[in-house]
Every structure is written in structure tokens, then in C-alpha cells.
Amino acid sequence: MLVDKAGPRLALARTETLTEQAYNRLEEMIVTLSLAPGAVLSEQTLSASLGIGRTPIREALQRLGHEGLVRVLPRKAIIVTDTDPKRQLLVLEVRRELERLLARASAERATEAERLRFQGIADGMEAAARTRDDIAFLRLDRELNALLAHAAHNEYAARSMRNLNGHSRRFWYLHYKQAADLPKCARLHADEARAIARANPVRAMAASDKLIDYVEAFTRTTVTGRR
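The chain above was modelled as a monomer; its predicted structure follows.
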């Protein structure tokens, strides 16, 4: 049975299209394992479950396919892909460089409205740290990633980063209860968002590096089983 954990949505700067709604809800269900690795998906079933038409569902699944979270076999099946700790370390090699670039560029180029959103995300991450709210953390993480991609005004880096974010969030959700410190991780995200809000590219890059250092250590613990 499908369980949709979408709940109340974070305030958005603009109205989402139906395809964006479908993508955000499906991506969250995959990340939070409501749609588990190996699950076979049906456009018709997803459409009925989410109350969204089949065309937006199909377009969302195509986007998830490009990002590697599902595998689309034309006229056969749509399958949620698996996750591999060792491959996640390769994801982090790329993510480290891209996130540093996006953090610096966002600190330099973000508009005043975008800086206010970065500050709001920082405040939200601090609240998630205090309450240990994993779903709030994941939604804020997705919002931060989207805002980084937009505020940096570098479409090439943003496009590359989009293919990594869902994999990182799903891996974290799968293993964080055994090996991660949610409050610390949330506060590291808050530090990055706050540095960007304050237009400080040097601190933004340093905060990005500290965040990826932590995520890499968490991932290696998952791979080796040793803290």
C-alpha cells in the first residue's frame, strides 16, 4: 500500500505545476522509502493514490528516471532503483565540488528575496535539530538544494547537482538512525544557509566543506560498520 508522507507543504515563492507537485511527492516517497528499492510502480496506481493526473505522473517519473531514482523500461515496468553505500562515496566526490561552487556563487549572486529564504531555511533547520524532525529536515534539505541551484545562477552546475540530491537524501534516510546525528547534520545545513544569507562566500564554502566532511564520515561509517 502506498503511503504519502507529503503533509503540509513548505511555503513556495510560486505555485507549483502539477508535474512539480507529482515530482516532489514521488521523490519524497522514494527518499523516505515509502516506495522502496525494487518496488514496481504503476502510473495508474500512483495517479489514484496522489490524486494527480497520469500525464503529470508520467512526466515526474521521467524526471526521476533521468536522476536515477527509478528505472523506466518502456511498455514494461517502472522500478525504484537500489542504493549502494560504495557508490554513494562516488556521489559525494562530485557533490563536494559542486556544492562548494553553488554555495560560493549563491553567496555572491543571490537576490535579497533569496537571502531571506536562505535565512528562513537556516531557522527551519535549527528547529528541526531541536525537535529531531527527520521529515522536516528532508523537506528543508530539498528546499535548500533547489534554492542553491537557483540563486547561484549557473545552470550547468545546477543541472549536474540535481542528479545527485535525491540519492544523497535517500541514503541518509535509510541509514541515519543507525549512524547519523540528525541535530548536528541539520545545524551544518543551517550554517551553510546562514552564510549565504549573509553574503559571505568564504564562510559559505567553509560551511559547505564541513557539511560534506560530516556526510562523508557518516557514509564511510555505513560502509565499514565502524564509527
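The domain at 85-224 is CATH 1.20.120.530 (Four Helix Bundle (Hemerythrin (Met), subunit A)).
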